Amino acid sequence: MPKGPPPVARLRPGKPVKLTIEQGIQGAKLKPPSTATVVWQDGNLRVAFDNGVDPAKPLKTGSRWGQDDAVEVALRNPAEGKAAAILVLRGFAGGHFESSTEAGAPEAIAKKAARAVKFAAKILAKNRWTAEMVIDLGALGIEPAKHRKLEFNLTVRKTAAPAWLMWRGTGGYSWDVANAGVLQFAP
């Protein structure tokens, strides 16, 4: 697992922040990296992924986490305290989206999270695909004006390598936000 303090992405309304997603599970840098442009605006958190992949190996466009090319946003609502459920939001290169209960979120919370997200994916070329999640923070009970920090991680599953690339390697599950990074909302 990476040493040192967790990375912090400081968000100001309407100002994009570009994050590099290149750490393996234990924190080693992997290639090709992905990037995510994160924007907080009008009550939404928009995460736009850009994923370079090996053009010699076709993307797997199914909808099974771990077996197909996909992206993940994991976060925990600070308003609910340390015992708050981790929301695990996953989108696949083929366009499928799901809100997973894998991290222990109750089914009702996972379904609520699914309704709060708009997802789209597009394969641009043999070596690149993009994905975008727009997350309605208010629908999830997240109030950036009251709770300025969210435990947070981004993951890209690249089947060609195969590799798990994270914004912050967790030493374990990609959604283990307690060992990942922080989104900080600034006024």
Structure in words:
The protein has 187 residues and is mainly β. It has one domain: Sandwich (Immunoglobulin-like). The protein is 5% helix and 47% strand. It contains one helix and twelve strands. The strands form two sheets. Strands 1, 5, 6, 7, 10, 11 and 12 form a seven-stranded mixed beta sheet that branches. A five-stranded antiparallel beta sheet has the order 2-3-4-9-8. A hairpin with a 5-residue loop joins strand 2 and strand 3. The longest helix has 9 residues. It is globular.
Question: How are the SSEs ordered, and which strands pair?
Answer:
Layout: E1 8-11, E2 17-23, E3 29-41, E4 44-52, E5 70-76, E6 86-92, E7 97-100, H1 107-115, E8 117-125, E9 128-136, E10 149-158, E11 163-166, E12 181-185
Parallel strand pairs: 1-12
Antiparallel strand pairs: 2-3, 3-4, 4-9, 5-6, 5-10, 6-7, 8-9, 10-11, 10-12
Structural descriptors:
Immunoglobulin-like, globular, 5-stranded antiparallel sheet, 7-stranded mixed sheet, 187 residues, mainly beta, 1 helix
Q: Using the alpha-carbon principal axes, give the shape.
A: globular
CA-CA gap between termini: 32 Å
Series of H and E elements: EEEEEEEHEEEEE
Portion in helices: under 10%
Residue-averaged pLDDT: 95
CATH-defined architecture: Sandwich
Q: Roughly what fraction of the amino acids lie in strands?
A: over 45%
What is the fold-level CATH name, i.e. the topology? Immunoglobulin-like
By DSSP (H or I, 4+ residues per run), the number of helices equals 1
